[in-house]
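Task card 7
Instruction: Convert sequence to structure tokens.
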Amino acid sequence: MQRYIRPLWILVWLALTITTGAGVWHWSYRAALDGLAERGRADLSLASDRLTAQLFRYRELAVVLARHPLMEGALDGSAYWRDVRSYVLSMADMTGADSIEVVAPSGAIVVALRGATFRPNPAALPLSRALTGSLGTAHAIGTASDGTPRRVFAFAAPVFDEASRVLGAVMVEIDVSGIEENWPGAAPAVIFSDDTGMVFVSNRSDLVMTNRSTGAGFPPYTEAQTGPHQIWTLNGGPYLPRRALHLARALPVIGMQAELLVDTASAERSALLQAAVAAGFLLVFGGVLLVISENRRALAGENQRLEARVAERTSELSEANTSLRREVAEREEAEAALKQAQAELVQAGKLSALGQMSAGISHELNQPLMAIGSFAENGLAFFDRGNTEAARANLGRISELARRMGRIIQNLRAFARQESGPISDVNLGHVVETALETTALKISEAGVTLNWHPPAHTVLVRGGEVRLGQVVVNLLSNAVDAMAASPEKRIEITLSETPDQILLSLRDTGPGIKEPERVFDPFYTTKEVGASEGMGLGLSISYGLVQSFGGAIRGENHPKGGAVFTLELRPARAEEDA
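Output:
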């Protein structure tokens, strides 16, 4: 039973493809016919307006001539025949009229230019309407001077006297072959036929004077209805389409019906192309599905074999997975312990630095305390003597010394605590000033000359104030220690700005860095044993702190001697742009 399923599905898919292609063709063909019909109606309207406009020029000519005083004089005998003929001839030459006649009510021709197709007969159109006071219009097939047939439109207008009585009529005739010569030949086939079905005017010469109703000379055709559209299938030679959309429009003002034949080949090609694309897509999609199904069948067999092997390995993998989980847990515990140890090590390094500065800190605090005591005793003495001004001055000095001690203690507390808050905008000049206050005694006792010019404006960078201050303190302390044996002891601090970053450089006049590439490695130090209590962690800690708020630090030897460390920090506005 399984072997019949696949061929059955293939047949069903082919039937679906054919049905879909036919549906797409029908829908596309109808849509294309709608577009052709819309454009065809515009072309038919344009051709109809062109013909009626050209014919009505001669109707207006008949009206203008009928109102001229010479026509009234020609009919009542008051005008010279030569004057009337000269005027009528000039009008015929200017307008291209084929024939102009002035006719009396009895049918007698008063003035005639060229041969008239409509013989003057008061009972025949268009004179019958003109002689009753209305405009007359008619068409007919006449005979030219060489004996060939000629298609003529005639317009007749009545001539009135001063009492509004009809004295006669003026009839103007025009050969329509002259109008057809100016029509574009590449346009769709247009025919204008009368009530009898005879094609009187057309832009296809082989259809002229044929009769669609009787079939005389008109190409045989069959009609079919596609929705609201009428489709003709005809054999009309190379100048008529084999299949055409037929459109019609009545023109009662000239007694004609206008018809247009629009070639449907473009609509058929468009519909066939879309149907082919849809069918091709379904065939390709079906082929892909067939290939996928075959692959799935092949994979199903292979999957059964693999499942057996997977079952064998499942138990082994479960045991290995359990072992890996235990190893991962152990590694996570070790990593947590390592992070804790690193944090404790960083704090130990900071406390070690505080220990090195403890003597200087005691000196810094002792001097203000002694001065405060002295000023307080003097202030009491001045109060006893009634010298309040001197006592107030001593109190001001005591207040200033107290603020100085507060700044020293605040800097030490900030340096000692662990900052973990988010980065923010930090005043880099204030950070440097604070670090210099913290290390002022160490710099003074070492005999180091400081070259630092604070910026004239506030320089804001992204970072943590405490962490950044710790880095600057560490760099200053290292610079002082490095210059212990140098004959010249000088620290230069420079601050420069670029559009993308702020650079803070600290240069010393010490021996320089022996291995610049290792200067930020943990436990790497060049200090002699016993020279200090440094553990080789200061620069490594500084490296991590600067990177924590998106900056960078580098150390290198200066060309003129000594070492220079540069901090690359992000300006505050760069964070705003981001």
